[in-house]
Design goal:
alpha/beta; 7-stranded parallel beta sheet; globular; binds NADP nicotinamide-adenine-dinucleotide phosphate
Length: 252
């Protein structure tokens, strides 16, 4: 039976997809029949292994591109290759992101540049090239992975929260600009999700965070990728410019 998500044969790119939330998004999109292009920055072997896993597990086409999303030339090359090979793009999951904590007096210029470059500029470069490709077919879905911290802030996370709030602004503006081309742009704002990003949190901090979640559990990457699947699919074809919190009711 054909899946009601209507994604079979379509093309997706997921940035930061070697681990954590991005990897989960890549798997769920491949499981629903998409060709999935994945990206990572630090480990080519891991990237190639992930590509093989997607092919073997789901019988779809997949390719991996190792580049830093804040390198605009590398991003451009990747989309040029996608255009040459597939002539279209249906879904971008703008997921690659980094988190570095520092209290306000400790914020260094280097850290500021790094976070803003990866989390904001990287997302905008991908948005630019992806929307250009999507515009050719007058359809597409762009999903920006923001954060609960971008909506409500957190001590020690001024720079990270600024970058994640920026993604919400980017989502609103791009949704308005791209709607006439039938390109939807939405954001997902995860709460606390069990990935490498939070692996260095002390056990007592994790416990405290868990207690602050109304559903009393830390989220899984699948909690996020299932929402990404919905936003990628035709089930959400009239949804744009939204920020969907996926956080177990952390702030209700
Ligand atoms: N985990 C959470 O609690 C949480 C909550 C809210 C929002 N988020 C957001 O969700 C997204 C994914 O987070 P995660 O928890 O899955 O993180 P993660 O486990 O640390 O994985 C990060 C991924 O991004 C890639 N990456 C990092 N910097 C990159 C760069 N400059 N260029 C290209 N790829 C890069 C990494 O590639 P390599 O493997 O090659 O390093 C890896 O695949 C991030 O945007 C994060 O801010 C996470």
């Amino acid at each position: 039976m054909e899946s009601s998500f209507n994604l079979k044969g379509k093309i997706a790119i997921v940035t930061g997809a070697t681990r954590g939330i991005g990897w989960s998004c890549a798997k769920v999109l491949a499981k629903n029949g998409m060709t999935v292009i994945i990206n990572g920055v630090s480990d080519n072997n891991m990237l190639n292994q992930r590509v093989d896993e997607l092919k073997e597990l789901y019988g779809v086409e997949s390719e991996g591109y190792l580049f830093d999303v804040s390198d605009s030339n590398a991003v451009k090359d990747c989309y040029n290759n996608i255009f040459k090979k597939y002539k279209r793009l249906d879904v971008l999951v703008n997921n690659a992101g980094i988190m570095i904590d520092a209290l306000i007096p400790m914020i260094s210029n280097e850290m500021l540049d790094k976070i803003l470059d990866v989390n904001i500029k990287g997302a905008i470069y991908n948005l630019q090239y992806a929307s250009r490709l999507m515009g050719r077919n007058k359809s597409g879905s762009i999903i920006n992975i923001s954060s609960i911290i971008g909506r409500f802030g957190n001590e020690g996370q001024t720079v990270y929260s600024a970058s994640k709030a920026a993604l919400i602004g980017i989502t609103m503006s791009a949704a308005k600009e791209l709607a006439p081309q039938n390109i939807r742009v939405n954001a997902v704002a995860p709460g606390i999700i069990q990935t490498d990003l939070i692996k260095n949190y002390a056990a007592d901090k994790t416990m405290k965070l868990r207690d602050s979640i109304k559903m009393k559990r830390i989220g899984t990457p699948e909690d996020i990728s299932n929402t990404v699947l919905f936003l990628s699919s035709s089930l959400s074809e009239y949804v744009t410019g939204q920020v969907i919190g996926v956080d177990g009711g952390m702030l209700i």
